[in-house]
Amino acid sequence: MSTLENLSCPIDAAPLSRVERSLKCEHGHTYDLAKTGYVNLLPVQNKRSKDPGDSKEMVAARQTFLNQQHYFPIVKTILSSWPKGDLLNGVRILDAGCGEGYYLNEIGKALLDQDISIERTGLDISKWAITAASKRDKGVSWLVGSNASLPVPSERFDAILCLFGFPVFSEFSRVLSETGLLLLVESGPDHLIELREILYPSIHDYKQTFPEGVEGFELVLEKAETYVFTLNSQTEIEQLLSMTPHIHKASYDGREAVKQLNSINLTADIKFRWYRKKLG
Ligand SMILES: C[S@@+](CC[C@H](N)C(=O)[O-])C[C@H]1O[C@@H](n2cnc3c(N)ncnc32)[C@H](O)[C@@H]1O
Ligand SMILES: [Zn+2]
């Protein structure tokens, strides 16, 4: 069950307690639970825009696309590459920038099949993403919030997953337990290359993210996975495009060319990097 426990007030960091359908801090700040069970812990003063993060349309497109399971191999690799000995009963996981909740939902189901019971929290800055996520899976504590200021006490989690997201390493380090793990999942050089070749006149050289390493963490495992999947309709192609940055970056001509496609074979090229929090 979603517990919404051990969270902190985003205004003053005081502990939040559950009072019926609200979370309250000792200074009188109150956060009501939404009908679907999530809680919004993103105070107005921390918002850079009125409706931050992914829009309702992007969330819907991503949900429809992910539900077709083209990215299920990513779930499998997350589980198989999880450092041995760290995936135990009771492990507390945060998906930071969880989107509409596909990965936490699938991970929960897969681990339940292995009789491993975990505590899952999903946080995203988009209320649309969290609304969709909270309808998908009632076993997760879903929070609207920002990676820049996580509304949880220090050392609250054993693992943080950040998939295609916006990591804030100082916050991740603060909220991880002493030997906590961080997983970054990102696209590799050939990701969706067939689509990018249609969208752009030329393909930029690939730049590795965080080439100097990540402050406060040491890299424990790096893995790349490549596979091919097929989209068999213009609608599916459109949905995939809507959930990537290419929808905004590509030229008009490129997008028009993609609209002519009815099927496409696409390369998924995904990078997985596991880090462990450095002691002291
Ligand atoms: C490319 S999507 C990936 C979503 C999900 N991890 C997935 O792979 O399906 C990036 C997500 O990051 C969220 N986001 C953007 N800025 C954020 C922030 N500062 N804190 C938390 N989430 C953020 C967006 O709303 C969006 O849902
Ligand atoms: Zn407060």
Automatic annotation (TrEMBL):
GO terms for molecular function: metal ion binding; methyltransferase activity. Residues 93-178 form the Methyltransferase domain. One of its GO terms (biological process) is methylation. It comes from the Bacteria. This is RNA methyltransferase. Keywords: Metal-binding, Methyltransferase, S-adenosyl-L-methionine, Transferase, Zinc. Residues 8-50 form the 23S rRNA (guanine(745)-N(1))-methyltransferase N-terminal domain. Zn(2+) binds at C25, H29. S-adenosyl-L-methionine binds at Y71, E100, G101, H191. It holds the Pfam family Methyltransf_25.
